[in-house]
Batch of 2 targets.
Target 1
Amino acid sequence: MRIIAGTARGRKIFSVSKNLPVKPISDRIKQSVFDIIRPRITGAIMLDLFAGTGNVSLEALSRGALKAVMVDKEPACLKAQRRNLEHLGFEDRGKSLKGDLLAKDLAWLYAYSEGEGYDIIFMGPPYRDINNKPLKFSAPVLEKVAQAKLLADNGIIILQHHKTEEFAVPPSLEIYREEKYGDTLVHFLRNKNDTQQS
């Protein structure tokens, strides 16, 4: 895995053991997503849920995001995130936090957003567990994000999930764009009361 563009372009990203149920975002999907959100990245405060090795956050920081907060519960992922932040020189703009996103409300994450919510929230929950059983984390965590009001005014949520996983959109949010990449769907959501065109 490598950074695609920005100040750290071409630099390596350290990964974790393949025995863990961590599936990094593909370069194809990452490139496409960042092409879509390019105008939003510079100066953005980002929240990366189920962050894994921090691949998406590191790309955002390389492209000019002001800050990225990465959350995962797997110790090996947290170790990789911190190693990558140090390796790329992003320690002052990146934060790696341990958290079980399904266990409690997410209001505690608001404090790390500089008090105005997150401009970009990326959610890439795992599709399957270690026994290859399908997981359905998108709906409950999306609901927790909405309940905690983590999204800034005119902010966006990017949700990557398997095409067979269905989820309900919380009443305060709306989908404004959908992209398909093989078995993966990426939905782009925003607050319903936002007037800014995306």
Target 2
Amino acid sequence: MTLAQVILAATLGCLTLPSTHAYAEIVRRDFTVTSQDGLQIFVRELHDSDAHFDRGPMLLVNGGRSGVLASWDVDAPSSSAAEELARAGHRLYLMDVRGFGRSAFPQEMNEGRFGVPVAVRSNEAVRDITAVVDEIKRRNPDEPRLTGMGWATGSQWLGHYASLHPETISHLIYYNGAYGGPAGGWRLQAEFADPEHPAELNYSRHGSYRLATAEDLAGRWRNEGIDPAFLERYVALSMEGDPTTGEREPASFRFPSGPTADTLKMVNGRQIFDASFIRAHVLILRSAGDFWSRPTDVQTLLAHLTSAASAKLVEIPGVSHYVHLQPTPDRQKFLDAVLSFTASVMRERQS
């Protein structure tokens, strides 16, 4: 399939899947929970009914642009990182923070991009995570284990949540997330910051929410030999949650500016949360070629995790921000790091 066909398919919304489906032993069930302020939050439960080990529940959170299915569960052959984690024995819960993927959009995103507050700040994401974790605990009574991992801003939100609710997360994987430390050195500073106020979003350019086209999503991979089946699903899953996608030319989906606004503070000397309150076992996992997190972010976070049950930094050499998406030897390095960390919670299932 050509990229043009991918864009057309995504625009027409013809590639969505039903809410309950299974591939071999992988079982998916979709549901929603209600956040504290009434917004419906999408969750997918995914597990391998034939897994030989039980690593406990794991919460996966979307990144700062595409929703959680595009972030973690691209259902092209061999492309879903969530499936690999499920086969290793985790019961996955994938959630979209408000304004992303299949979750409800806040009021700020149902109006014009300008003249309204920046949509979806970290404190609002924490409300959504709280509602989902409460439901995970309800579905897994007497289960003390819960691993949390997000992609970039997803990890930032989980870190904020874990600092406020330290008793609920047993293992935290902070993957390619910013945190804090000395200001400067962020690769995206010029693109997103107010030129006169480096810690503030350039609101006059970006507004309350931003727009992404299929070209924005897939253009960088056009000539890199990326599997067309993966591109097809990645684009379609990214676009499917926004009912207004086809109203613009070219087709585009809305996503909140809040994560970028919060990250600008974090990389300019203003922390969003204090990691010293986190009590989980923590793996700080960073791609050496990452453009979102900085080396100083992970070193500062590591120094601040003074109350953590344990804290470890792993940097994967020679890989990008997107390493977990594609089934490559580099992705296996990512999976090996994650599963080595969660091996301590693994129990053998009795047949």
